[in-house]
Amino acid sequence: MSIIGNNIPRLESQDKVTGRAKYTADYARPGMLHARLVTSPLAHARIKRIDASAASLAPGVQAVITGESCAHLYGQLLEDRPLLAIGKVRHYGEALAVVVANSEAEAFAAANLVTVELEPLPVVNTIRDALQPGAPLLHEQQALYAHYIPGVRPEPGTNVAHRAQVRKGDLASAWQQSDVTIDCRVQLPQADHAAMETRVALVEISPSGQVTVQAASQGPFFLQKIISHVFGLEMSQVVVKTGLVGGAFGGKATATAELLAYLASKAVGGKLVKLAYTREQDIITAPGHIGMEAEIKLGATREGKLLAADLLYLTTCGAYTDSSPTMAQAIAASCTGPYNVPNVSCDSLLVYTNHPYTTAFRGFGHEVMTFAIERAMDKLAVALQLDPLELRLRNAIRPGDISPSYEHLNASLVGDLPTCLQKMRSLIGWQSGQVVPTADGKLRAKSVACFWKTSSSPVNAISGVILTMNKDGSINLNSGVVEIGQATKTVLAQILAEKLKLPINRIHVVMPVDTEVSPEHWKTVASKSTYMAGRALLRAAETLIGELRNVASQALRVPPEELDVAGGKVYAVADPTVNIDFADIAHGYKYDNGNSIGGQLMARGSFIMPRLTPLDPETGKGRSGPAWTVGCQAVEVEYDPQNFTYQVLQAATVVDLGKALNPQNARAVLTGGMCMGLGLATREELTFDPEGIVQNAQLRTYKLMRFGEHPQYLVEFVETPQLDAPFGQRGIAEHGILAIPAAVAGALSVAAGVDFDQLPILPETIWQAKTGGEA
Amino acid sequence: MIPLDFAYYRPDSIAEAVELWSQLAAAGKQPLYYSGGSELVTLARINQLVTQAVIDLKGIPECRRLEQQADQLLIGSAVNITQLVESNCFPLLSASAGRIADHTSRGSITLGGNLCGSFYYREAALALLVAESQVVIAGQQGLRTEPLLQVFDQRMQLLPGEFLVQVQTDRRMTELPYRAAKKTRQDYVGYPLVSVAMLRDGGRLRLAVSGLLAYPFRSAAVEQALNAIDLSSEQRIEQATAALPGPILGDAESSAGYRQFVWRGLLSEALTWLGEE
C-alpha cells in the first residue's frame, strides 16, 4: 500500500490536543530572569529623554537597557531598524527600553516606572501622505544604512524604501489595440498575524561565550546568522533551538524578541532571560501585515483577450523594511495574476509610514496583489458584459505563455489553471447564477477569483536532511524544517516511508530543530519546505538504501545491484526468501564467528534552490521561484439588502497542487488559509487615529474569525505534477488565503450593486456605500 | 501577568465583607470587591486597574443564590452568566446576557461584575431594567433594597464600600413575552453597536438599550414615543430617536450614523413584534 497519497495524521497531534506539547514560553528554569518592554506611546516623535533611574532601583530589577546603550541596527535586507529606538520613534508601540528583573511581575512593575519624554513630529499616516512632495521623512539617513543582503533600492530624500518594476512588451500600441479598458483602485489596511503564540525568546550566554537561543521561530538558522552578524559573534558561538511553534504565518521568519533577549542577557552577565511579548506588543511592537494602495489599468479586445496591464502597487512596510522589499519584488514578479498579458508595465513601490512595521505574512504580498488584479478582472468582465469566470478562463495562464518576469512556462512550471476553473464551475454551482434571490428577501451571490504564487527565496536557499539508523532498524529523520502547524515533518516521514517501503511508524522524526545538530533548512517559509527538504530527503534516502545494500550484500552474498528494500528488510530481487532484517545490519553485521562489519548506517542529503535569478531592476526579467502553484477560489454569500449584513455560506478552493501527498492535510492547510482570507475580507484591520495610534491593539477589538462563524469549506484538487518536486507536489501552505478576499469582495459587489475595492467589508461599509451615510 | 501585589480576602458573610472594605480603605489599600475576576485580570495586565486589596464575594452565600421563589426570582451577584443562561430562570435575561463576551469568559463573568464593572455595555442590566427588578445592596448601614431603575443611572450608583448582593425580579416579569437583539460591527462575539432587551406587557413595549449611547439606559420618553399607538411606525421611531437621553455614540466600532441606522432597524422590528400581540 502506498503511503504517499494517504491521510496520515500529524505526528505531533496527540501531544498538542492533549495540551502536553511544550512551546517556547512554557520553558522555565530556576534563576531565569524576565524581560519586559517599554514601548512608544506616539507614532513619530523625537526622544528627548528616557529616564530609567526609578526603574533601575525598583525591587528585583537587574538591568534596564535603552537605545543609548546599544547602537545596533537590524534589517533582514536593509539595516534600517534600531533594536531599541535611538533619537526618534517611528511607530506607535516601538520598543524603547527593556527591563530585566527577577520575576515577570517585577519586570512589569519596573517597566511602568520608566519615564519617556517625547517631542511629537508630524505623522505620516497613509501611503499617499508618505509620497507627497515635502512629506515628513521617516528616515533622514536612509542613504547611510548598510545592506545585510544587497538588492534593496531606497530613494534617499523620500519615503520610498524600495522599487521593483516590470517592463514587458509594447504597452503604447497595446492600448491602441484594446477595445475596452478599465481602471481600478484598491486599498487594503495593515493587519496582524495574530498567531496564538506571541513572539517569545529565551537567551543565555555561557561564561565561555556560547550564546544559546530558545526561539519560537520559522528561521532558527536565519537567527543564528543574523545574531552573529548584528552582535559581531562567530556563527559557531550561536546555537538556536526551536521546538513546536504555536502559529507563525510568516511573522516568525524574522528576528524580534531574540535580539532584545540577547541584549537583556548580555546586560545581566549572560544569565538566562525570557522575553515574551504581550498580545498588545505582538500586534504593535512586532511586525504585521503590509498595507496597500493600487491602481490597475487593464486593456482587452472585445472578445475578452487581455492585451495590456499598467499596474501601480504601493505597499507600506510601516516604519521599517524588514523583509517587505522582497514582497514588493514578489508583487512585481507575479503582478498580472495568473493571466497571460503580453504587454505589462508594473511599478511596485514600498513606502515608509509611521505605522507598526511589517514582515512576511501568509501569501507574501500575493494576497494583496491578487485582490487588486481580481477586482480589476471583475470590472473588466462587467465592461465586456462577459461572465467573470469565462473571462478568467480565456486569459488563464497556460503552458507556452511567458510570465511577467519573462519565464517561459511549461506544464510542470505553471500547472493547469483552466481545469481548476472548470472544476470550480461545478463545485460552487456557477450555472445556477451569480446572484439568486431567496424566498425571504435576501440575495445569494457568488464570485470567483484566481491566484498564483511561487516562492521568493534567496537564490541560494538550502535544505539538508540527515538519516541515522537505530539498532532495531528504525530510522531517525533529522531536518531543519520547523513544525509550525503545517505538518511538513509528517509529510517528510511519508516520503521516506514510501521511498524505503517501510511502515511509517518505524520512522522517528526529530521534532525540535537545533542549529547545533540539525542540518540547515533556510527558513520554514514560502510554501517550500516539502519541496526543499523533500528533495534533500530523497537524496539521503538513496544514499541510505545504498548503504543498506552494501552491508546486506556482504551478509547475503548477493551483489548490491540485485538487492532492494521493503518492509524493513533488504532482499534479493530474484529470490525474496534471501533477505536480512534492517535490525541485523543497522548497527553493523556480525558474522557467526563474531567478526563484524558496517557500523551505524546513516546518510545525508542536501539541496539548493536551482537556477534562480534576481529580477532585473529595469525589466523585471529573472526567476524568483522553482514553479508556480495556480488555482481559483470562490465564495457564496447571503446578503440582506434590508440591513446590509451578510454571511459567507461557502468558501471553495480548487488548486493544482501537483500531487496530494497527504490529502487530508492539504485540505486542512488550504482551509486554514481560506479562514485567514475570510478574516481579512470581513473584519481584520489595524485602525489608526489621525496621530497614527493603533486603535485596536487587543483581541477584544482586533477581531478574528471564530468557531461558529465559518462557512462550509470546499476543497478540490487538480494534479499536474511539478516534475522536480518530491512525488510532484507543489507548495500549497499559503495559497488558501490568496484569492478569498477578492472573491468575497466580488460576491458582495454583485449582491449589493456597488463595487467594494477596499477591505475589510463590514455591514457599515456596505451601508455607507449604499446610502452615502444616511441613517 | 499582573504587575501588582495585592492582598486577597474571601469573607464568608456580608458583614465581614463590608467591615473588611472599610478597614482596608482606611489603610489606603484602595480595596475592590470582585467575584468573577475577568475584569481584574484583563485591566490590571494593561495598567488600567490599580488596587492593593481585593475582596472576593464568592464566599458569601447570599451572593451565590439562584432561586425561583413563589413570587420572585432571586439572583445572587456572584452567579456567573453561564449559570444564569443555563438555568434559564429569566429567558429575556438569558437572551440578552447570553452574548456578553465569549463562552469562556461568561463562565467567570458574574451578574454583579457585569452590572458594576467598568465596561460600559453592562448588557445584563437590560433585562433587569425592563423587568423593574429590585436590587439588594450591602453597605455600612446594613442592607437596603431599592428599585434598580433608581439605583442605575448610566451605571450602578453605589456608595463607597457598598456592593450588590442580589437582584430580585417579580416572577410575572420573567414570564412576559420577550425579545432581545444584539447587533455588532460584524462578529457574533463582540461589543454591541446596539443591544436591546424588550418585554411586552399589556400591549406596551418596555425597552432597555446598550451600545447606542455611552451607557445603557431605559428611557420613559423613548418608551412613550414607541407606545404612541396613534402614530405610524416611522413617526414613533422618529420620536423615539429624538427622545434619546444623549448623543449617539461614534467610536472605533462604528460611526454614530451607522449606529443610528442599526437602532432604527431594531425599532422597526420591535414595533412589528409589538403589533403582533
Characterise this structure.
The complex is a heterodimer of chains A (775) and B (277). Chain A is an alpha+beta fold. Helix content of chain A is 25%, strand content 26%. Chain A has 18 helices and 32 strands. In chain A, the strands form eight sheets. In chain A, strands 3-7-1-14-11-12-13-23 form an eight-stranded mixed beta sheet, sandwiched between helices. In chain A, strands 9-17-16-15-10 form a five-stranded mixed beta sheet. A five-stranded mixed beta sheet of chain A has the order 18-19-30-31-32. In chain A, strand 27 and strand 28 form a beta hairpin. Chain A is globular, with a radius of gyration of 27 Å. The model of chain A has no long low-confidence stretch (mean pLDDT 97). With 277 residues, chain B is of the alpha+beta class. Helices cover 36% and strands 24% of the residues of chain B. In chain B, the strands form four sheets. A five-stranded antiparallel beta sheet of chain B has the order 4-5-10-6-7. Chain B has a three-stranded parallel beta sheet with strand order 1-3-2, with helices on one face. In chain B, strands 11-12-13 form a three-stranded antiparallel beta sheet, sandwiched between helices. In chain B, strand 8 and strand 9 form a beta hairpin. In chain B, helix 4 (81-87) packs across helix 5 (91-97). The longest helix of chain B has 20 residues, at 256-275. The termini of chain B are far apart. In chain B, 45% of the residues are buried. The model of chain B has no long low-confidence stretch (mean pLDDT 97). The A-B interface holds A 104-105, 108-109, 112, 278, 280, 642-643, 682-683, 687, 695-696, 698, 700-701, 703, 706, 708-709, 760, 762-764, 767-768, 771, 773-775 and B 1-5, 42, 45-47, 102, 185-191, 252-255, 257-258, 260-262, 264-265.
Features:
heterodimer, A: 775 residues, alpha+beta, 8-stranded mixed β-sheet, 5-stranded mixed β-sheet, 18 helices, 25% helix, globular, B: 277 residues, 5-stranded antiparallel β-sheet, 3-stranded parallel β-sheet, 13 strands, 36% helix, 24% strand
